Amino acid sequence: MRKKGLFKHNYKKVENTWYICDQYINPLKQAPGEIQEKIERFCRERNFFSDKFPLVSVITASLNSEKTIEETIKSVVAQSYPNLEFIVIDGGSTDRTLEIIKKYEDSIDYWVSERDRGIYDAFNKGVILSFGKWIVFLGSDDIMVQDAIETLIRHSIQFERERGIEPDYCSAKVKIIYEGEKYEKIFGKRWDWKEFRFKMTTAHPASLHNRNLFDEVGLFNTEYKIAGDYELLLRKKEKLKAEFVDKVVCIVREGVSKKKGKLGLKEALYAQVKLSILPPSIANAYFYIHYLRFLGGKLKRKIIYFIKNFMKKISE
Q1: How far apart are CA 173 and CA 181, in angstroms?
Q2: Torsion angles phi and psi, residue 188, rounded to 5
Q3: 82 C-beta neighbours (distance < 10 Å), count
């Protein structure tokens, strides 16, 4: 842990003792007694060890997001869930993003602005800095509904009561707004390995990740630019324990170009083959199927947009 400069180093608790760690949270040496006491007091004051309301860390990655990040921050601050940690990892913004972040500093537990290697590098930094039992990733143009985290936690607790084991992952639905095309759709379904191994079917924004998942499979692979979340969840294969909430918990502004869409599908194919999920021939076949569907979806949205504009003009 390292919060708002209160502590000089990163720290990790091992068998009731806090250790000073390197940037990857590998313990180096035992922290001095005075620091041990300060950390324990800080954690008690923040209710970090609550069983009733387990701590949830919300990690937002940003880069030149002055037009959208304020709404994102407000949606986190307005959450009905009572035990949140909020971390913002900025990639070195040169617009007004940092000015907006500083405006809400009292509501942000930790933020940093420095160059990174993309969104998954930023998410990894957030995971390393976070302290929550559960971790949520949120883009700087995403907006959570007010009871999003409360709802996800409630379902995760119910999952554990019914099955006697915690879920690795809990997702819900998101509303995707294609702003340039004036089009919306609902995305996200229950995780099912038979379908998931072929394509990303769950909605990653605002979903809950159990910290134990990262302890088990590692952090995001920064080779990926778009499909890193899919690759992370693929690593556990059919053993992933997943819960689903049939409700929209987040609004996502989307502007996926043909180039980015193709890259995302290529990365998914690469992950499927690298992790021995699918044979290369099958993965390639599904890549072309999904890419044609992607192009068809873009064409459909353009046609709908054209018809709406045409009808609007003739009715004036």
Answers
A1: 21
A2: 120, 130
A3: 12
Q: What are 83's two structure tokens?
A: 């035990």
Beta bridge partners of 254: 178
- Helices 258-274 and 280-315: crossing angle, nearest 10°? 160
Is there a contact between 302 and 179 (Cβ–Cβ < 8 Å)? no
On whether the CB atoms of residues 252 and 174 are closer than 8 A, the answer is yes
Which residues in the chain belong to E strands, given as ranges? 10-14, 17-21, 27-30, 56-62, 84-90, 110-113, 134-139, 142-144, 169-178, 183-187, 208-210, 242-254
Residue 293: CB atoms within 10 Å: 12
Ordered per-residue pLDDT tens for the chain, 316 residues? 444 555 667 777 888 898 888 766 788 899 998 888 888 887 777 777 777 789 999 999 999 999 999 999 999 999 999 999 999 999 999 999 999 999 999 999 999 999 999 999 999 999 998 889 999 999 999 999 999 999 999 999 999 999 999 999 999 999 999 766 567 889 999 999 999 999 899 999 999 999 999 999 999 999 999 999 999 999 999 999 999 999 999 999 875 544 576 778 889 888 898 898 977 777 776 666 665 665 656 555 555 555 556 455 665 6
The torsion angles phi and psi of 56, rounded to 5 degrees, stand at -115, 125
CA distance 168 to 138: 18
Of 158, 169, 187, give the one whose Cα is nearest residue 252.
Answer: 187
Strand ranges (E), 166-232: 169-178, 183-187, 208-210
Which H helix or E strand runs over 170? Answer: strand 169-178
| CA nearest to 100, candidates 141, 131, 129 | 141
**Token code pair at residue 47:** 């209710």
Query: All domains of the chain, ordered by start, with CATH?
Result: 52-254 (3.90.550.10)
pTM equals 0.82
